[in-house]
Structure formats: C-alpha cells, structure tokens
Design goal:
heterodimer, A: mainly alpha, Helix Hairpins, 3 helices, B: mainly alpha, 5 domains, two-stranded antiparallel sheet, 37 helices, elongated, disordered C terminus, MrpA_C/MbhE (chain B), ion transport (chain B)
C-alpha cells in the first residue's frame, strides 16, 4: 500500500510540474493544487498506513496523529493559496486582458 | 578601564543623537553640539601625550567575537596618537568652520551625522590592533566618505564623484581584507602587535609577498596613489569642509597609516621598498605636474594633495630600508626618512587644511573657484590672503613655515638613499632625488599660481557672482588657527618631534628600539650650506622661472590629452562591465515564469537527485506494506488516470472535474488511512475550491490549446518526469530508513494533558495552538487580499502618475 501511494504521489508531482511549466495561468494554479495533494499523501505515507485505529483515545492502538494534524493545517493553507491565486489571475486578466504568462512579460526594452 | 574604546564609540553615539537634536532644537545650529565631541576627544587624547611620550603604550580590549579571536582592542602608541590628535583636532576646527559655511537651510542634521560617523570610523582605524576590526572601520570610512561627497546629491557630479570614490576605495579595501586574512592565517593571530612580534616566522612564507601587495593595494587606493588617484579630484564635489577634513587632512592619510603600521612587518623587503617608494615618488611628480594646469582652485588642491601624499608615501618607503639592514649605527640614518614622513604628515594637515578653508572662504564670498575669473582679492580680503600665503609657502617648502623643515628632511633622505648599495639603488637610486626635485619645482609653481592668480593681478568684479568681501569672522577662526600652527611648528618643531614622532618611531622600528637606538631626530631649521639647501634654492629659482615663462611651456600638457587619460579608461571599463552584465543577465532573466520554473526544477533534479546518487541513498528496503484491497486499487488507479488526463484536458470544465476527482479521491484515501478529520476537512475544502474555480472560470477565458513548440513540450515533459522520479525515489528511500522513534506517543495522553479524546483536535487546539492561530491569521490575510484585489481599483490620478 505504501509503495503504491508513493507512486501515486510521484505521478501527481509529475503532472503538477508539467502544469506549472505551462503558459496558461489557470493550468499553473491547478498545478499548485495538485502539488499540495501530492505533499499530503507523502506525509501520510511516511508515517505508515493503516497501522492502527483512528486516533481517538479509547479506540485501541491509534495511528500516528501528528501527520494528520499537520495535513489539516496544510489543507486550509492550500485552500487560501488557491483562492488568492485565482483572484490574482482574475484581476490580472481584468487589467491586462490576457492569462498567458508569455504575454505578461511587458516591454522587452525596459 | 576602557575609556579608549569608549572614545572610539562616542562619535557613533553622537551620530545617533544628532538627528534628534537637529529636529527638536531648531534655533541652534546643530554644529555647536557636534563640535563638543571632537573637542572633548582632543582634550582627552592630549592628556595622554605625557604617558605616550615617555614610552608607554595603552592597550584596552573589549571582547567582540572571542571564539574567532576578534576583539575590539584599542591600541594607542605614538603613531596612533598622532593621527588621533589630527582627527579630533582638525575635526573640531572643520566643524567650527562648517558652522559658518553651511547654512541652516541645508540638511545639516544629516551632514553632522555623517561627519560623526566618519570621525568614529577613522579613530577606529588608527586605534584598532585587530586587523579585522581595522578592516570594518576602514570600510566605514569609505562609506561615510561616500555619503559626504554625495551630500549635495541633487548634483549629478556629486553622485558620480561619490560613486567613483566608493568603487575605488572599497575595491582596495577588499583586497586589503584578503591580505589581512593571509597575514592572519600565516601567523595565527589577528593582532597586529603579535604579527609584528613574530614577523621572523612568516617572512619566508609563500603568501608573504602576495599578502604584502594586497595590503599595499588597499593603502594605495585609499591614499589616492597613482594610478588610483583619479577618485580624489572628483571627490572635490563634496562641501569644502568635507574636502578639508576627509580628502586632505585625515581619511586619505589612512592608507599612509596602514603602510606605516605594516612597515615593521613587510619593510626590509626589496618589493616593499620599491613599491612604496616608486609609487610614492611617481605620484608626487604626477600630482604636482597636473596641479599646475588646473583652473579650479579645489582641483588644484586635490592634485596637490595627491602629490603630497605621494611624497609622504615615498619617505616611508625609503625609511623601510633601515629594516633591511637591521640595527647598526649606519642603518639608523635611513630611519630619518620615516621621521620626516611623520613630521610632514602633521604639517600637511595644517597647511592643506588651511588652504582648503581659504578656497571655501573665497568660493563663499565671490561665488566662484575658477582662477580665470579670480584676481586682485588682496585688498578686499587681506586676512584670507595672509592665510593663503602662509599655507602656500609652507606647501612650496619655504621658510619660515613648517613645510620647509619637512621638505628639507625629504631632500636629505632622497640624497642618503642614493648612497645605499642594496636593492639595486646603486644604479637606479639617483633617479629618486632628481624626480623629487623636479616635482618640488612644480609644487612651487602651483603654490605660486594658487596665491598669485587668486589674490594678485586685476580685480574682475564683472566676472564674479558677488563682490568680494571678508566673510564672517567665525569662518576665519579655523584657518587662522591652522595658519598659526604652520608658523609655530616651524619655530618649535621639536614639540611634535619629541612628544609624538619619537614614540611613533619606536613602534615602527621595534627591533631598533630594543637595541636602544636613538630614533628621534632633533629638527633644525639651519643645517649650514648643505646640498638640501641648494636644492631648495634651485627649486625657488627654477620655480620662479617656470612661473614667469609658463605660457610658453604649457603646450607640454597637450602631450597628455583628456581622451587618453586614466579617467577615460576607468569610465570605459565601467561602462563595458555594465553593458556586458546587462546582456548576460537579459539572456537568462526572461521575465517568463516557465523559464524560472525550469531553472528551479532543473536545480532540484541535479542537486537532490545528484546527492541521492552520490551518497548512495538509493537502497529501498521497502517496509512490510499494508495490504491493498480491491476498492483501494480502484480509487488509486482512478486518481492516477484523472491526474494524467488533466494534462490533455481541452476544456476548463474537464480540468476542474478531474481536479475534483483528485480532491475527493484523497478524501476517500484519508478515510481508508484512519483519518476522519482530514477526510471531512478535505471534502468541505474540495467542494468550496470547486465552486471557487467555477466562479473564477466565469470571468476567465476558455482554455485554449497551448501553442508551444514540440521541443518546449518535450523539455517540459522531460523535466516533469525527472522531478517525479527524483521525488518518488527520495520518498521510497526515506521509508525504509527510519532513524528515529516516533514522537507521536506523547499525544496518546491527549485526554489527560489537553482534555480531548480526539488526538488530532487536541494537537491543533492545544499542543500546537499557536500554529493554528497563525493559520487563522494567514486565512485572514488571504481573505483581505482576495477582497482587496476584487474591490479596490487604482484611482484615476495615480494612473496618470504611473504614465509619466
């Protein structure tokens, strides 16, 4: 299971990297979101998967609760990042009229 | 007791206080507060003269970075004290002068702050025993000099002069630092005194000569020696009090101080002798030769300063010959050059300081410094004329002024050195007195030009900005004091000689002092009819002749046209560096996110992947994997397919649906991984994110086909796969090698410790509550950011400003 999820995370990182390298702002933003997913998976994997019960006192031998706490924080932060990036893309498009990164370079003579 | 260290830091303290005084005490010129600092320091330092002249040295240490042997050690011997007295004494006079020179309408708070900064740094340079601390203060003097030259920063020439001086002096400073580090590593100490005490152990080291040359480079750039002298004339854009203080009396002497301080270390080597003497004597000639043709009084004084600094430098070079011979009754004679150098160092500060102040007075009074417009001021400004004459005649080396004494001693030294039979002096030595004599003739000529062109001849009021008049008496106090000192030092030179210079000599020639050599010289004005007197008489005769016939031989300057000067070369090199680096930078700084991401990812692959392979971390001892049910296979495969399909999504709706599949897939995985809290949060967040994407898409354009070339695409694919592979390999490598026990067992007591049965919630809300709070802050900031970006538009007016 751990190996399989690690490979899944690897695939997601590959996809995210490819998206980050594209010209379209939207693809870049989706890329960051996918990168976050991959990071969450790998944190879970490193702690070991399905080694116990849910981390609640009295339910038996629990799995490691610490990665879960860290990921919970990260999910929320990841959401904030996505929201800000999206609005930034929206505003950029409003002001400049393009969402293509190669056209956002401005005047080459500057 | 560490009052000496305190003395270094008092000016810095004053620099911090002065801006407040300037702000809150508007009706008192802030210079009156500033002047207290150098006056107090001068009195304090003067009170140490008896102790120093009886042969004591004062050492006080405050620990700074003891683990690296870097301590602030204040070290006061005759040499340090001489310079420290000059710094505080001339400093006090310059501030007094500047109070009348600068009006309160200028930002004088800043001016005095910089000046105090400089004063502290300069005291630090001359009193530091630790080479690295010395370096720090050294660079501080460069920086404060930069700030002071650019005081009238509205003027382009001020800014350029400041930049030039900074580039040249700091480059020299860095090479000096490298030299210091070499010396430090050779002798295992940063203390100059200890280096001097154990100099025998390092003089055969392979780094000895490179270290010497690097240190000399620092000294030559700072003291404006040829060919680094080009910054000094440009530095004359500074206010005249600054020119008088930094660029003639004190800062430019720092290089000379450095040479003197390191004479016991490096002196006695032929390279040192020829480098210091040769550069010095040529600078003496070149400076005086160029000073004659200047039309700006300040430029004339700038070249004359260069020339005089060269003269002092060459004397220190000649004096170092004594160290080569070692102590004997014959070799002591060469130390006379060093003595003369120290004496001239003091004299130069007095007469050159006075002359700069005179130029300031003239400029202030009539509004120009151009000698083609000046003339006939003698009747209108008699006091100024008197000071100018005293200073100029001293500069030219005439009696009864102090310059005469040191000039005569200089001639004696140049003659004595020709009789030495080492360092190839037998053949080349004769050039030294000849060049020195020619340069002195030019010195006489420009000194004459200075006085005659400004004060004699016809008075041309129509060419002046204001009619000439004597300035406020306050402005004349400082130049009068300096002018009086010029005369006092002639009649009583041994006050300085015995109390300051003799102790300084003992520090420069410690091996001689240990043998009980009599290093002090009793200075006489009258030696009898000796060669040096005839040299002076010759200087006067030829000088007068050249001055009278100057319009016939001025054509000689056409041999050195402006377009082939070192200045033009310097400008050319600087422009080329700027152009080339712009071209290179523009090659890789493409202003395109993709390219920057490529650099980052390529670095990631090479660095992380490289280390991974290099350290052989790639053995995967896969732990006992948890079993995989069919359902789990299904979820994971679905996610992989969804992930890969996103790359091919043609419409943005497809992309967002696929992204949601990933998000919700992770929620399911969280359930399977026994993480109910995560699953819940992920579900909610994913739902909100999806909605957010949909809303955003309403405003954003449709995804269109990427119009990238095949080549770019394959590079992107290659990099992505590379990153994915490295990531996976590292993640797998980590899993098999658990080096530490888990710390999570601590949280299993969450009910007892935090009163919560849900461990994850207990961690978030109690154990790591600060994290959670800050996370909320991040959310808040993000919220404000989102709101601002949607709601706030730039105002029309500010748009127009942007356009300009």
């Amino acid at each position: 299971m751990e190996t399989l999820v690690t490979i899944l995370a690897g695939v997601l990182v590959t996809v995210a990297t490819y998206l980050l390298l594209s010209k379209s702002l939207i693809r870049v933003i989706i890329g960051t979101a996918i990168l976050t997913h991959a990071a969450h998976l790998i944190i879970m994997v490193v702690a070991g998967l399905k080694t116990g019960t849910v981390p609640i006192v009295g339910e038996g031998d629990p799995v490691d609760p610490l990665p879960q706490a860290l990921i919970l924080t990260s999910i929320v932060i990841g959401f904030a990042v996505t929201a800000v990036s999206l609005v930034l893309a929206y505003r950029t498009y409003q002001e400049i009229g393009t969402d293509k990164l190669d056209k956002l370079r401005g005047n080459p003579d500057e | 007791m560490s009052t000496l260290v305190l003395a270094i830091f008092i000016p810095f303290l004053a620099a911090a206080i002065i801006p407040f005084l300037y702000k809150y005490l508007k009706n008192i010129h802030v210079g009156w507060f500033a002047i207290l600092v150098p006056t107090g320091l001068f009195i304090y330092l003067a009170s140490l003269i008896p102790a120093i002249s009886s042969g004591e040295v004062i050492v006080q240490t405050i620990n700074w970075i003891p683990s690296y042997g870097i301590d602030i050690t204040a070290y006061l011997d005759g040499l340090s004290l001489t310079l420290a007295l000059l710094i505080s004494g001339v400093g006090a006079l310059v501030i007094l002068y500047s109070i009348y020179y600068l009006s309160s309408k200028e930002p004088i708070g800043t001016f005095y702050t910089y000046l105090m900064l400089f004063m502290g740094a300069m005291l630090g340079v001359v009193m530091s025993d630790n080479m690295l601390v010395l370096y720090v203060f050294w660079e501080l003097t460069s920086i404060s000099s930069f700030l002071l030259i650019a005081f009238w920063y509205q003027r382009k020439r001020s800014r350029e002069g400041a930049k030039k001086s900074l580039i040249i002096t700091v480059s020299g400073g860095i090479s000096m630092l490298v030299g210091f580090i070499m010396v430090g590593s050779m002798s295992n100490t940063w203390s100059i005194r200890e280096v001097i005490a154990n100099v025998g152990a390092i003089s055969d080291h392979a780094l000895f000569i490179p270290a010497m040359l690097l240190v000399l480079l620092g000294a030559f750039t700072k003291s404006a020696q040829f060919p680094f002298h080009i910054w000094l004339p440009d530095a004359m854009e500074a206010p005249t009090p600054v020119s008088a203080y930094l660029h003639s009396a004190t800062m430019v002497k720092a290089g000379i101080y450095l040479v003197t301080r390191f004479t016991p270390v490096f002196g006695g080597e032929a390279v040192w002798f020829w480098a210091v003497t040769g550069v010095g004597i040529f600078t003496l000639f070149w400076g005086s030769f160029n000073a004659v043709r200047q039309t700006d009084l300040k430029a004339l004084l700038a070249y004359s300063t260069i020339s005089q600094l060269g003269m002092i430098m060459s004397m220190f070079g000649m004096g170092s010959a004594a160290l080569y011979l070692g102590y004997s009754t014959e070799s002591v004679v060469y130390t006379g050059a060093t003595f003369a150098a120290l004496f001239h160092l003091v004299n130069h500060s007095t007469f050159k300081g006075a002359l700069f102040m005179v130029v300031g007075v003239v400029d202030h009074s009539v509004g120009t410094r151009d000698i083609r417009r000046l003339g006939g001021l003698i009747t209108l400004m008699p006091v100024t004329f008197t000071i100018a004459t005293v200073g100029s005649m001293s500069m030219a080396g005439l009696p009864p002024f102090n310059g005469f004494l040191s000039k005569e001693m200089f001639f004696v030294s140049t003659l004595e050195i020709t009789e030495a039979g080492f360092f190839g002096l037998g053949t080349w030595g004769i050039a030294i007195p000849i060049i020195a004599w020619i340069a002195s003739v030019f010195t006489f000529v420009y000194s004459t030009v200075f006085v005659v062109k400004t004060f004699l001849g016809p008075y041309k009021e129509e060419k002046l900005e204001h009619p000439a008049h004597e300035p406020k008496p306050g402005m004349l106090i400082s130049p009068i004091i300096l002018g009086l000192l010029v005369i006092v030092f002639f009649f009583m030179p041994n006050i300085v000689g015995e109390n300051l210079i003799t102790p300084a000599m003992n520090g420069i020639f410690p091996t001689f002092a240990a043998e009980g050599a009599e290093l002090g010289t009793h200075i006489h004005a009258w030696h009898g009819f000796k060669p040096e007197l005839f040299m002076t008489i010759g200087v006067v005769l030829f000088g007068v002749l050249l001055f009278i016939t100057r319009k016939y031989w001025y054509g000689v300057y056409n041999l050195f046209p402006e377009k082939r000067s070192i200045n033009v070369f310097y400008g050319f090199v600087l422009d080329q560096i700027e152009d080339k680096s712009t071209v290179i930078t523009n090659k890789y700084m493409t202003r395109y996110l993709r390219d920057y991401m490529v650099y980052i990812f390529a670095f990631f692959i090479l660095a992380i992947g490289g280390i991974f392979i290099f350290t052989e971390a790639y053995y995967f001892t896969l732990p006992e994997n948890a079993p995989i049910s069919n359902f789990e296979w299904l979820v994971i495969l679905a996610m992989m397919i969804a992930g890969i399909t996103i790359l091919f999504a043609k419409s943005r709706l497809t992309a967002i649906v696929l992204n949601s599949i990933l998000g919700f897939g992770i929620s399911i995985l969280f359930v399977l991984f026994r993480a109910p809290d995560l699953a819940l949060t992920q579900t909610i967040i994913e739902a909100v994110t999806t909605v957010l994407f949909l809303v955003a898409y309403y405003f954003l354009p449709e995804l269109d086909k990427e119009d990238t070339t095949k080549k770019t695409k394959s590079i992107n694919l290659f990099i992505s796969i590379g990153v994915g592979v490295v990531f996976t390999a590292v993640a797998l490598g980590v899993q098999g090698n658990k080096a530490f026990d888990t710390i999570s067992t601590f949280f299993e007591n969450s009910y007892e410790l935090a009163g919560g049965k849900n461990m994850v919630n207990a961690i978030l809300g109690d154990f790591r509550a600060f994290d959670t709070m800050m996370e909320v802050v991040v959310l808040l900031i993000a919220g404000i950011g989102v709101y601002t970006m949607i709601r706030v538009k730039a105002k029309k007016e500010s748009d127009q400003i942007e356009d300009k």
